Amino acid sequence: MVVMPTKDQLLDCAEHFARTRGFDAFSYADLSKEIGIQKASIHYHFATKADLATALIERYAARFADDLTRISDRRGTAAEDLKAYLGLYKEALSQGSRICLCVSFSAARDSFDDKTLAHLNRFHRDSLAWLARVFDKAGADASIPGLIADPKDEAHSILSLVEGAQLISRAARSDAPYDHAVQPLLRRLS
Amino acid sequence: MVVMPTKDQLLDCAEHFARTRGFDAFSYADLSKEIGIQKASIHYHFATKADLATALIERYAARFADDLTRISDRRGTAAEDLKAYLGLYKEALSQGSRICLCVSFSAARDSFDDKTLAHLNRFHRDSLAWLARVFDKAGADASIPGLIADPKDEAHSILSLVEGAQLISRAARSDAPYDHAVQPLLRRLS
DNA sequence: GTCTATAGACTGATAGAC
DNA sequence: GTCTATCAGTCTATAGAC
Question: Nearest nt (C1') to A7 (CA)?
Fold first, then answer.
């Protein structure tokens, strides 16, 4: 059992709440109860809730970027990259209905300041750029049949698909809608 | 100028807030300021905020079902039905970054009681059934090329696509992501 | 139906002791 | 770094007059 600094504990707990309930639906009091620390002490680590939001999305985006890099480093086909990408979103969902933090934050956009929104947009931009590179690769290795659209359009389509599928699955309290939604794409990849 | 009953005014205003800010991000005080009526008076029309949520989603689902019926009644090809469906979601987005009420409610799932969630799930079920029928029709009229997946899977895929694309577009404060995301599908339909 | 007034709980945030 | 104590503001909701 690793002893974890309070700040990391707070981030982990806040991320869990944000991904299962939404950012507006948990308070410092909730974190206080969960971690076993007084509300006032949390303000020492994150002076305002806006600071907490920024720290959350920054850490999440960095971690997600690492995941994508790890997939790219395998140097597989475009189809394999895309399958791994679909797996990332599925994995999050299976671990207790957790939606991507960015799906959660996008839904509550108006609750955040410009600094947090900048990180959110960067996450989307990075994901879209990564996906577009996958579709560029697909144009070369022909591992995804039936490609007729622009890589940029395909990237937007995939990102929308997985984020929408997560949202619907969570509403239904079941992984099934996600599995159905990615099925047509998976057929093309196998 | 039509004189509108207070109850309808409240529903319209609440729907606008829910679709632009989120259900948890507006209060009876906000409605009070906007409509020009006291907070306490709103409780006469909707005793609790949970009642307001139920009324909102019920009205929205009924209106949306009418929209879908209107599309079906045109008796066009499956491709034409699908194009009209994509147009419905685009239209909502263009009218001031309004996401589908059900995208908004799905994101804040834990804020709602079972009655409201039942309406939310019914909306998804009805949409999926309508879309599956469109893909059944496509199997007959061959208006959507390259169909290899199950109509049920295709339906989940389309619903996820449009709801995810709305979410990303709103986060980006631009219609562009939605337009990009539906482009690969539109190419198949033209 | 709408009003004034208010209850009671919760929110994020601060001051100051240890 | 964490604590106790407290703030001012907000929230949903209710009581009772008109």
Answer: D1
